[in-house]
Design a protein that fits this description.
alpha/beta, Rossmann fold, 6-stranded parallel β-sheet, two-stranded antiparallel ribbon, globular
């Protein structure tokens, strides 16, 4: 009788300590990806093919229309845009995403990096032909007077007053009129859109994929502009693809899918 009880106790103990069956691992859930379009863009334009590829690969994908779209035309400040991204992230988590990646093209890439610098819990960040560089000399020169005026208005509590400034997109310049506070949020050289600083502020736990087009003038900035300022992470990559600025998301779609799959477990 004693030997029977010993065997029974051994079987019960083994059952308790045994690892969970493989089926439970699937309960970790899919990874969610927020895809941000570029300046004067839209969710159904140049980032659409990337979103399609991600969905086909099993990711939960959201492609929100951001304040810098052609339709919205800087309808909200840059920090407000961060809050819009946060709402999309929350929605993806509610749908079952167990890890979140923020990816973006052009100004959307800038925003993805800015958001990642503020959220060290992301699984990864992807910057595709990231653009909008208010800290660079040429942009500073274009808007020195407007930035100074906007700073004065905001400091005096008049951030809703309008400022005329010069914006650029794909090498073209054009005049825009915006509330001083909104303008300053995007174009302050020391503000939220400063990519070198945001890269340096990333958590070492957040891997960074930075993709540029070989036919995009922005590729001349090279990795030292911002990518190399990010904390070292063994999964981070700087990659050049055969594309112009607009078509980097399409050219990099397969690369992004493979890179995300290779990250392993999500957080």
């Amino acid at each position: 009788m004693r030997w029977f009880l010993c065997i029974l106790l051994t079987l019960v103990t083994t059952a308790i300590l045994a690892p969970a069956p493989p089926a439970l691992a699937a309960e970790a859930g899919p990874m969610g990806v927020v895809v941000l379009h570029g300046k004067q863009g839209s969710p159904d334009a140049y980032v659409a093919d990337l979103a399609t590829a991600l969905r086909a690969a099993g990711f939960l994908v959201a492609v929100p229309e951001m304040p810098w779209s052609r339709r919205r035309a800087y309808a909200a400040g840059y920090q407000d845009a961060m809050q819009e991204i946060a709402a999309v992230v929350q929605d993806l988590r509610a749908k079952g995403a167990k890890g979140i990646v923020v990816a973006g093209h052009s100004l959307g890439g800038n925003a993805a990096l800015a958001y990642a610098a503020q959220h060290p819990d992301l699984a990864a960040v992807v910057c595709l032909a990231p653009g909008h560089n208010p800290e660079r000399a040429r942009v500073r020169e274009l808007n020195t007077a407007a930035v100074q005026k906007a700073r004065e208005l905001v400091a005096a509590g008049h951030g809703e007053e309008s400022v005329r400034f010069t914006d650029t997109n794909l090498g073209k310049t054009f005049d825009v009129v915006l509330p001083a506070g909104v303008f300053l949020s995007y174009f302050d050289p020391d503000g939220l859109a400063n990519m070198p600083r945001n890269a340096a502020d990333l958590s070492p736990k957040v891997p960074l994929l930075w993709v540029v087009g070989q036919r995009d003038p922005l590729s001349k900035l090279g990795p030292d502009y911002a990518f190399s300022r990010a904390p070292a992470n063994p999964s981070s990559r700087y990659v050049e693809v055969d594309a112009d600025h607009l078509h980097v998301p399409l050219a990099a779609a397969g690369l992004v899918v493979d890179w995300l799959r290779g990250l392993g477990s999500v957080r």
